[in-house]
Amino acid sequence: MGDSTTPLRVVIADDAMLLREGIQKVLEDAGIEVVASVGTADELLGVLDETPVDAAVLDIRMPPGHSDEGVVALERIRAGGSTIGVLLLSMYATPEYALRVMGAGSGTGYLLKERVAQPQTLVRAVETVASGGSVVDPEVVEQLVGRSRVDDPISRLTERERSVLELMAQGYSNGGIAQSLFLGLKTVETHVRSILQKLGLEESRDHHRRVLAVLALLGER
Amino acid sequence: MAISGYWSTPAEARPETSYATLHALVPLVFAACAGVAWAISESRWPARLMVAFVVLWIPQSIYAVIGGVGWLWPVVRGLDLGWAVVTGIIVLIYPRGVLRERFDRWVVGIAAVASAVNLLAVLLLAAPGDGVCACSAPNPYRVAALPELFAAIDVGYRIIGVGLALAIAVRLLFRWMRGSVPARTVAFLMPLALLAWATTLTAQAVSYAAEARSDQMLATISLIAIASIPVSFVAGVSHARNMRARVADLMRITREGADRGLWAESLARTLRDASVRVYWWDEERGVYADASGTPIPKGDADPRGSQSVLPVASPLGVPIALIRHDRVLTDNMRLLDGVSSALRLSVDNGRLRSEIERTLAHVRESRQRIVEAGDAARRRIERDLHDGAQQQLVSLAMRLRRTSDQARDRGMPAIADEVDAEILLLNAALKELRELAQGLHPSLLAQGGLSLALPELAGRCSVPTEVRVDVAGRLPELVEATAYFVVAEALANVDKHAGATRVWIDASSDGRELRLTVRDNGAGGARLDAGTGIVGVLDRVEAVGGTLELVSESGHGTTITVRLPLVDGVDGAPPTLG
């Protein structure tokens, strides 16, 4: 979480100017410093070379190819050893894509573009990735959980456990889950242990690994 | 009759028994050949003439019987060389049964006039005892006693006859010598027979003129020669018929569109003429050239040479080829007609085939272009939506949110709530727009190919679906899109109809084709009927040159197998003529 005295430094990359400006306003309203706002992935990488930032918010689909430039940029950032937070915005919620994005490492987020209209969601996502956490769009999780499976392990979960699982998949920490569901931390921890046991997943101290494991399990069928 | 004539002839005037037998056999041979000729010849004339020969052969042997009948013997006596005239005509009309050339018509004309003059002379001038006839009754038609004139006409007629016979024999011999090996093999009997006969006839005529008794040996040879004429006629005609049967074989061989080399070879075999050459019309150069491209030699068009050329053209008059063949084959126009028909048919077949192949290729290409254009349009619309409407709606939602926040800050919660409601509506609209754009062209497919898009597609299916994608790298856009829509349609069908509990999707490529199977364990019984989405998918698959196979036995699930070529199919058009 950003220290209130030293604001988070963020760079934005999106080829749609309207959105770029909108995102900038939302972030600045929340006290985040937008050090640069660019239209392509290459420009973003240029900015990152020169300016130290805490996080980058970037569109997946950008010129020149309008395909997966954002993900490629993420992979290059990680390949360069940088651990800054990277939040990818996508017009479509695609689980397979989210899995690929999350696979790039911790401090990564995948969010539907329309979430920028929910300032708290966007700001919290930026803060989460900047602090090394993971963010997965609820719609992606919803799709994954809704997948039909042979011998569905999800069906063995209670209603409450399922809600906890969904938040786990979205990247929430136990504390975050407790806050969202108005539960005690101990209760959440019990639920998490039960869920992991029922799903046959190992407990892990590494928060990102937990997110990946849950997503991977949900991705299976 | 010949027998009764023999018996009524005085014993000392009777010829030898063997000669008499032979003499009686000649008309039998003619009669038999007439029957065969009637059956196999194109024209009825040879058979008719052979029958006429049989009738006209009789008078020679029955003088002894009719010598006492005054009104009859002069008529018979006037016609007693008719068989020779008929024999000459039979030879001339060989093999087609018609008189072809002016020479032939002249010969027949002269023979007819001479025969008429002779008949008149016999009727009006002959007395009993003149010539061969040992007749006793007086000639009732006789108008004058001019024994010198009668003798002159009688001998002259025979000399003209011998002359004509010799002319025919020589002509035939010439024709035969100029002919090719194939024609000679059978037709050699005819000129030989005629020559033998003409020679003996000459000898007989000389001895007749000298009033000497003819030599028995010569007479026997003459009979054999005469009898061999209808035999060689029939043999020649049946040989030609065999050739026609071989044309049928030629048709069969070349129907499938033979190449040019094989054509010349088959033709030579059919016509039994190794000298046959086929020259194909070369549209570019405007010349006829053989299969290896060598143009036709100038001299080959010479109408006087031993070779003759047969032009073959399409029904519209477009030249196809020249067949250079032995001149003697022109005797058999039907055969050549058959050959040129076979050639025309073969070329037409080849031409049609290549035309159909060309048209098919065009249709295939244009089908593919239509699909490509459709895909491009979908992609463009999706991109326009993504970069335009969707982005604008998102930023609009964002601004509305700020408006709502500001309204709340300024103590206008009612307005803020209203704006929040608008935002919810806007989000719903955005979601719908997103799904529309996704359906138009899955952006994931464009971005990640089948290995990303197929699992995503499977994830949306209500039935548990196992996906295996074994495809290295990206495939051509058209193939990826087609495979994607196949799977989408198949899964939609599974959702709707199959009642399955499990689906398996398998996509693999070997670099040359993408093999895609979608299998379920449902009720089966699906069909490629009109109205089902699979038919639309089939169209698409075929447009990119692929195949779709549906196996759906009732109770055994449904398997759709699609193969899509990754490289442009090699055009396996067989070699064609023309």
From TrEMBL, chain A:
<keyword id="KW-0805">Transcription regulation</keyword>
<dbReference type="GO" id="GO:0003677">
    <property type="term" value="F:DNA binding"/>
</dbReference>
<dbReference type="Pfam" id="PF00196">
    <property type="entry name" value="GerE"/>
</dbReference>
<feature type="domain" description="HTH luxR-type">
    <location>
        <begin position="150"/>
        <end position="221"/>
    </location>
</feature>
<dbReference type="InterPro" id="IPR000792">
    <property type="entry name" value="Tscrpt_reg_LuxR_C"/>
</dbReference>
<keyword id="KW-0597">Phosphoprotein</keyword>
<dbReference type="Pfam" id="PF00072">
    <property type="entry name" value="Response_reg"/>
</dbReference>
<keyword id="KW-0804">Transcription</keyword>
<dbReference type="InterPro" id="IPR016032">
    <property type="entry name" value="Sig_transdc_resp-reg_C-effctor"/>
</dbReference>
<dbReference type="InterPro" id="IPR011006">
    <property type="entry name" value="CheY-like_superfamily"/>
</dbReference>
<dbReference type="InterPro" id="IPR001789">
    <property type="entry name" value="Sig_transdc_resp-reg_receiver"/>
</dbReference>
<keyword id="KW-0238">DNA-binding</keyword>
<dbReference type="InterPro" id="IPR058245">
    <property type="entry name" value="NreC/VraR/RcsB-like_REC"/>
</dbReference>
<dbReference type="InterPro" id="IPR039420">
    <property type="entry name" value="WalR-like"/>
</dbReference>
<feature type="modified residue" description="4-aspartylphosphate">
    <location>
        <position position="59"/>
    </location>
</feature>
<protein>
    <submittedName>
        <fullName>Two-component system response regulator, LuxR family protein</fullName>
    </submittedName>
</protein>
<dbReference type="GO" id="GO:0000160">
    <property type="term" value="P:phosphorelay signal transduction system"/>
</dbReference>
<feature type="domain" description="Response regulatory">
    <location>
        <begin position="9"/>
        <end position="128"/>
    </location>
</feature>
<dbReference type="GO" id="GO:0006355">
    <property type="term" value="P:regulation of DNA-templated transcription"/>
</dbReference>
TrEMBL record, chain B:
<feature type="domain" description="Histidine kinase/HSP90-like ATPase">
    <location>
        <begin position="478"/>
        <end position="568"/>
    </location>
</feature>
<dbReference type="InterPro" id="IPR036890">
    <property type="entry name" value="HATPase_C_sf"/>
</dbReference>
<dbReference type="GO" id="GO:0000155">
    <property type="term" value="F:phosphorelay sensor kinase activity"/>
</dbReference>
<keyword id="KW-0547">Nucleotide-binding</keyword>
<feature type="transmembrane region" description="Helical">
    <location>
        <begin position="106"/>
        <end position="129"/>
    </location>
</feature>
<feature type="transmembrane region" description="Helical">
    <location>
        <begin position="216"/>
        <end position="237"/>
    </location>
</feature>
<dbReference type="GO" id="GO:0005524">
    <property type="term" value="F:ATP binding"/>
</dbReference>
<dbReference type="InterPro" id="IPR003594">
    <property type="entry name" value="HATPase_dom"/>
</dbReference>
<feature type="transmembrane region" description="Helical">
    <location>
        <begin position="149"/>
        <end position="174"/>
    </location>
</feature>
<keyword id="KW-0902">Two-component regulatory system</keyword>
<dbReference type="Pfam" id="PF02518">
    <property type="entry name" value="HATPase_c"/>
</dbReference>
<protein>
    <recommendedName>
        <fullName>histidine kinase</fullName>
        <ecNumber>2.7.13.3</ecNumber>
    </recommendedName>
</protein>
<feature type="transmembrane region" description="Helical">
    <location>
        <begin position="52"/>
        <end position="75"/>
    </location>
</feature>
<dbReference type="GO" id="GO:0016020">
    <property type="term" value="C:membrane"/>
</dbReference>
<keyword id="KW-0812">Transmembrane</keyword>
<keyword id="KW-0418">Kinase</keyword>
<dbReference type="GO" id="GO:0046983">
    <property type="term" value="F:protein dimerization activity"/>
</dbReference>
<keyword id="KW-0808">Transferase</keyword>
<keyword id="KW-0067">ATP-binding</keyword>
<keyword id="KW-0472">Membrane</keyword>
<feature type="transmembrane region" description="Helical">
    <location>
        <begin position="20"/>
        <end position="40"/>
    </location>
</feature>
<dbReference type="InterPro" id="IPR050482">
    <property type="entry name" value="Sensor_HK_TwoCompSys"/>
</dbReference>
